[in-house]
Write a structure and sequence with these properties.
With 116 residues, this protein is of the alpha+beta class. It is 37% helix and 26% strand. The radius of gyration is 14 Å and the shape is globular.
Length: 116
């Protein structure tokens, strides 16, 4: 994937906008971080990933998922862009989007998607 691919997936969600976080590109929802680029290793910072899931992802696919000491102890996993596919990224972004979106926005989105 490229950063443009990440934006295409992220900006397809309601009210998402291209922004920055810590001086790096980052899609946000109403100013709330959904993910951001980590240019030093061309990875995405995926938030809201519990430690047990992060450990499973790292064990199952270490070519894609990793973590640095800085992120240990946080509900975060890093994903290498070169190894990531859009359909694999979308559930992470959608989960984070739901976590930071207002309940009414989530309800409207789910109703439009045929989810209740």
């Amino acid at each position: 994937m490229t950063w443009e691919d990440v934006l295409a997936v992220g900006l397809a969600l309601p009210e998402m906008e291209a922004s920055t976080s810590y001086g790096t590109p980052a899609p946000k929802l109403r100013g709330k971080l959904v993910t951001r680029l980590r240019p030093e290793d061309d990875s995405l910072v995926l938030l809201g990933v519990p430690p047990d899931e992060r450990d499973m992802l790292r064990a199952a696919d270490p070519a894609t998922f990793h973590v640095t000491p800085h992120y240990e102890g946080h509900a975060i996993v890093l994903a290498r862009l070169a190894a990531l596919e859009p359909e694999r990224l979308r559930p992470f972004l959608l989960r984070r989007w739901r976590a930071v979106a207002p309940k009414r926005l989530v309800a409207r989105f789910e109703a439009a998607q045929g989810q209740a």
